Amino acid sequence: MVAIPLRIMTADAHPVFREGLAAILSAQSDMALVAEATDGNQALSLFRKHRPDVMLLDIYLSGMSGLDVIAKIKNDFPNARFLVLTTHTGDAHVQRALKAGASGYLLKNTVRRYLLESIRAVHHGQRRIPSEVASNLVEYITAEALTAREIQVLGQVANGNANKIIADRLSISEDTVKAHMKNILSKLAANDRTHAVTIAIRRGILELDAVAS
Q1: pTM
Q2: CATH assignment of 148-212, given 3.90.1570.10, 2.60.40.290, 2.60.120.560, 1.10.10.10?
Q3: 213: pLDDT confidence band, cut at 50, 70 and 90?
Q4: What pairs with residue 83 in β-bridges?
C-alpha cells in the first residue's frame, strides 16, 4: 500500500526562498507541495482551499502577518499545523508564534538541517524548537514582561519623541512617562533609552514596522 504524501503549503514573500523550499520538498517521496502564497491574505485563502497537513510560513507577510494568519486559521481549523520559518530570533517573536498556534519555529538559515524532520514531527502533533531558538527563550524566561503601555511608550521613544510629546500623544503626564521609562530600563536591563530600544527590537518586543510608523 502506497502511503499518501503529506500535503505541504508555503507562505513567504521571497520567491528564491519559496523555490528552495519547493526543491527540498519535491525530493521527498512522502511530501507534496500543494500551494504557495506570497502574502498573508493569499495564505489564508489558499489554506482554506487546499487544507494542507502542514503550512510553512514566515512571521512577516504583507497584507496580514503570519501570526494573524495562524490565529485566524486556528480559530476555524483547530487541528491545523504550522511551522514558522523566519530570520527573527527574538524570544518575543517565538512566544507570539507559539501563542498564535505554531507548533514549530525554525530559522531560515537552519532549514536544510531541520526542515524535513520538523515537518514530520509537527504533523504528528509534536513541537519543534531547535536549540538556536530555544536558547533565547531560556535566557529571558524569568524576565518581567513589558506592559502594553510600556511598549507604547518605548515605541514613541524609538521614533525619537521626547517625554513631553509622548505624554501629549498618549494623554498621560510627563511624570507618568518618566515612571514608565524607569520601569522599562529596569525590566530590559538597559543603560539608557537608546539601549532599551535596541534590546526591544532585537528581542522582538518592538516591531520595526511599528517603529517606522
Answers
A1: 0.82
A2: 1.10.10.10
A3: very low
A4: 56, 104
